[in-house]
Q: What sequence folds into this?
C-alpha cells in the first residue's frame, strides 16, 4: 500500500535535499506514493533546494507555512495534505535514515485491521548527538515512561510510520509528535518499535536545547496525562 512521506523542515539547507533523494532511493516505486516537505517559514535556502528537485521528481510536493509554527504543526499540515493511507515521518535534519522505512513498514498492519499495529516508531540505538543531549533524552524518556507507561523507549525519534486515519482522530497540540505512541494507545491502538540508524547532522544547527525542551516537556506531560485519563474509546458494532 502506497505511503506518504512527510518531512518537516525549518532552516535545513544542506540537509533536506539530500534526505529527499535518499528517500526516493530507499522506497520502491510501488510503495512510495509521495514525499511532502513542509517548509516551516525557513529563512535559508530550504525552499530553493526542494524547488530544484521538484523539476525532476513528480512525486515530490512542497508546502510552505507563512509563519513559523513548529514541528508538530508542520507534520499536521503534511498529514492533512497527504493522499495515501499510510504516513511515514522523518526529521528534516537528515539524522533519520530513510533506508530504515521498509523494515518499519513491514511491521505495520494494514490500515484499519482489527488488533493490528497502527504505529511503528524508531529506537535510535547509537545516538550521534552530544553527550548532554543523549543524557537529557534518556532522562526525559525515563520520566515520561514512568508517568504514561507507554513502553516507548525513544519518544523523540522522528522516524515513524502509522495509519493516517488513526492520527487524525487524535487531539492536536504543538508537541504531539513526542507523545504519539501514548495517544495511539489511549485510543485502543497498538504500537511497536524497531531499532533504527541515527546519523550526525551535516549542516545547520539544532532548533532545540535541553532547557527549553525540558520545560515544554514537563508542561505537555501533565496535559497528555490528563488527556489519557479523560479519553474513552469503546469497541462498538452496528445492529
A:
Amino acid at each position: 500500500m502506497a505511503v506518504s512521506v512527510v518531512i518537516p523542515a525549518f532552516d535545513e539547507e544542506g540537509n533536506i535535499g539530500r534526505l529527499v533523494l535518499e528517500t526516493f532511493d530507499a522506497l520502491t516505486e510501488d510503495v512510495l506514493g509521495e514525499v511532502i516537505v513542509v517548509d516551516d517559514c525557513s529563512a535559508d535556502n530550504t525552499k530553493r533546494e526542494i524547488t530544484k528537485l521538484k523539476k525532476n521528481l513528480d512525486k515530490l510536493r512542497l508546502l510552505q507555512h507563512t509563519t513559523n509554527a513548529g514541528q508538530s504543526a508542520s507534520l499536521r499540515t503534511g498529514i492533512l495534505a497527504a493522499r495515501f493511507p499510510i504516513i511515514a515521518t522523518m526529521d528534516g535534519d537528515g539524522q533519520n535514515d530513510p533506508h530504515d522505512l521498509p523494515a518499519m513498514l513491514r511491521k505495520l498492519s494494514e490500515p484499519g485491521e482489527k488488533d493490528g499495529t497502527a504505529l511503528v516508531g524508531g529506537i535510535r540505538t547509537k545516538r550521534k548527538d552530544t553527550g548532554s543531549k543523549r543524557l537529557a533524552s534518556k532522562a526525559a524518556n525515563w520520566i515520561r515512561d514512568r508517568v504514561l507507561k507507554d513502553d516507548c523507549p525513544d519518544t523523540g525519534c522522528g522516524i515513524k510510520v502509522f495509519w493516517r486515519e488513526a492520527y487524525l482522530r487524535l487531539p492536536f497540540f504543538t508537541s504531539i509528535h513526542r507523545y504519539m505512541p501514548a495517544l495511539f494507545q489511549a485510543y485502543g491502538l497498538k504500537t511497536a518499535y524497531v531499532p533504527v540508524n541515527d546519523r550526525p547532522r551535516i549542516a545547520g544547527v539544532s532548533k532545540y536545547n535541553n532547557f527549553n525542551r525540558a520545560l515544554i516537556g514537563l508542561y505537555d506531560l501533565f496535559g497528555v496525562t490528563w488527556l489519557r485519563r479523560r479519553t474513552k474509546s469503546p469497541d462498538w458494532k452496528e445492529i
